[in-house]
Specification:
By secondary structure, this protein is an alpha/beta fold. It contains 5 helices and 6 strands, in the order βαβαβαβαββα. The mean pLDDT is 98. The protein binds flavin mononucleotide. Flavin mononucleotide binds next to helix 1.
Length: 185
């Protein structure tokens, strides 16, 4: 069998009860057999300070190392005021710097999102896709996973209870793995 595809996942929310952390946890159980998923918590990544970009804080170094070691990236993003949450933009800013040392360079990537609203973080997801251009990442086209009204699909213990949502996450992971294998040649 081919070597397993390693996926690094992170959510753009720090809160314990995060719906986006919940869909990432669900992904742990839905990942195809020929792949593995590791989750990185953005907790502990300080606000970006360009004065420190050449020797960033330890947590940032750890984040960049995990990104580099992964074959593919999976982002679970909420939406904040119609765009990417600050905590996620901040972490991605660190990982992309200094100029010439962008940890995301050339990585296959996909994004999913959950929100309590009716669009499932769609706007944040499209804004992320715009950033992938400059980051030189290779975004998967379809499927898109937009978990709208997340409070009805994820229970109080942070478990995804909606079968359709689980199906979509599974499909996303399978497509990401196939996409990554295709790019690896
Ligand atoms: C500052 C702030 C801005 C928000 N803006 C949006 C928004 O633009 N669109 C949306 O669908 N939900 C918005 N929400 C609601 C989020 O969908 C909801 O808080 C969601 O649970 C956040 O994701 P999480 O559960 O992973 O933390 C906002 C919430 C906060 C706190």
């Amino acid at each position: 069998m081919d070597k397993k595809i390693s996926i690094l996942g992170f959510a753009g929310s720090l809160r314990k009860g995060s719906y986006n952390k919940a869909i990432l946890r669900a992904a742990l159980e839905l990942v195809p057999k020929d792949a593995q998923l590791e989750i990185f918590d953005l907790e502990g990544i300080p606000p970006f300070n360009q004065d420190l970009e050449n020797d960033p804080p330890e947590r940032v170094k750890e984040f960049k190392k995990k990104i580099r070691a992964a074959d593919a990236i999976l982002i679970a993003s909420p939406e904040a005021n119609y765009t990417i949450p600050g905590v996620l933009t901040n972490a991605m800013n660190w990982a992309s710097r200094p100029y010439g040392d962008n940890a995301f360079d050339g990585k296959p990537v996909t994004v999913m999102g959950a929100s309590v609203g009716m669009l499932g973080a769609a706007r944040a997801q499209y804004h992320l896709r715009q950033s992938f251009v400059w980051l030189n990442m290779y975004p998967l086209g379809m499927p898109e996973v937009m978990v709208a009204f997340a409070q009805d699909k994820i229970d109080a213990k942070g478990r995804v209870t909606d079968e359709k949502t689980k199906e979509k996450i599974k499909e996303l992971l399978e497509s990401l793995v196939a996409w990554t294998r295709k790019l690896k040649g």
